[in-house]
Amino acid sequence: MASSHRDRTPHSLSPLFRGRRRQGTTIAAVLPATVAVDSLERVLWWLFRSSIGAATRARVLLAIREEPRNAQQLAGALVLDYKTVRHHLRVLGKNGLVTTAGERYGQVYFLSPSMESHWTVFESIVKDMKTRGDRRAAK
Question: Would you list the domain boundaries of the chain?
Fold first, then answer.
């Protein structure tokens, strides 16, 4: 039986997780069966429910929503290594969840308009992580 589009990992995400993806992990495996999703919701479920670094990315998004900041400010506020923050900002940017203003070092990160419109979906994913006792849940 052929798998539906919903069962496949989004091809656009494959390069971001090369070598880190668990074999057999599909979008359908982490989504409730009754959920109808658009492409950004699929990305949110993938990035925050079934990938390594989900909790850190969630913390970064929560901090940006609280106050737009540059990578150095985020690293200080989250007590994370600067390179770790830059990595997660790159992943979030490539998937359309954050936008920037300014030049290189001083670039300030904001939630993208599409992320703002899907904020309740993101919150429900983080809540689901916490209620399941997922060790990756954002604190």
Answer: 5-131
Q: H/E element holding 100?
A: strand 98-101
d(CA 139, CA 135): 10
DSSP state of 136: T
The count of other CB atoms within 10 Å of the CB of residue 44 is: 23
pLDDT digits (tens, 9 = 90+) for 24-34: 444 444 445 44
User: Residue 111: which of 93, 129, 125 has the closest Cα?
Assistant: 93
- The residues near 96 (Cβ < 8 Å, ≥ 6 apart) are 40, 43, 112, 114, 115
Domain 5-131 belongs to what architecture?
A: Orthogonal Bundle (1.10)
The answer to whether residues 74 and 63 touch, using CB atoms and an 8 Å cutoff, is yes
In the structure encoding, which two tokens stand for residue 44, read together?
Answer: 């949110």
121: left (phi over 0), alpha (psi -120 to 50) or beta: alpha
pLDDT range class, residue 134, cuts 50, 70, 90: low
